[in-house]
Structures are given as structure tokens and as C-alpha cells.
Amino acid sequence: MSGNTARTLLALSPIPEPLSRNQSVSGTVEIYGSPFVDDRLLTRAPTAESVLHATSRFARSLNGEFAVFVETSDSVVLINDRFAALPLFYFTDDHGITASFSYTSIWKRLSDLGALKPDRAA
Prior knowledge:
Elements: E1 6-10, E2 20-24, E3 27-37, E4 40-41, H1 48-53, H2 55-61, E5 63-71, E6 76-80, E7 89-93, E8 96-100, H3 103-113
Parallel strand pairs: 1-8
Antiparallel strand pairs: 2-3, 3-4, 3-5, 5-6, 7-8
């Protein structure tokens, strides 16, 4: 994605505020739910740089019910637990990415943007 690509994370459903958020020069990491590493609750988000450097290792080390949102100037990474206990819906197009924990929220956002093109033949 280019640096001017729009990115949106919609937390409009009854999901609480992020458990942890780390915003730095390298980017933003938001953690939702209850992720555990080595049987300990992950209460502090790592830096975006460290997550992106070892994304697959970081994702495999997490257990529990969680969603992780990592954003830098040129990329977005969404990590969800193995069973999608917190369902994470997303939509990408030429304008960027929109993600939400609620299908209804993402549908409304896409409708507001005029991004929905229903099949008129149905």
C-alpha cells in the first residue's frame, strides 16, 4: 500500500477499548481481547517494528481470544486468534483497507462510501 492509502479500523460493535496500544514513530499496535504468551496475559503492546520484523513468530506465540491490528506508514497487518473468537471482517480495494469486529459496521461503512455494488440480476 502506498503511504497515502486510507486505512480504517472500525470498533463500532460492543468490543471494548484496546487492551493495549503502542504508538511510536514506526507505527501503531492495538491489541484487543485476551492474548496470552507463555501463559501470561499480554498487557503491553510491542512496537510495530518488532511485530513486523517477526510477524509469523509473534502470531504463533499468542494464545487466547484476541485480535491484533498493526499499522505502519506502508502496511497493515491484522492477526486473529486461531478460532476467530473475536470475528474480524475486512474489505480491501484500491483506496485501502477497512476492518471491523462487526459485519454490520463494515457493511454500513462501505454503504456510506458507496463501495457496495449489489448484483442487480438477483
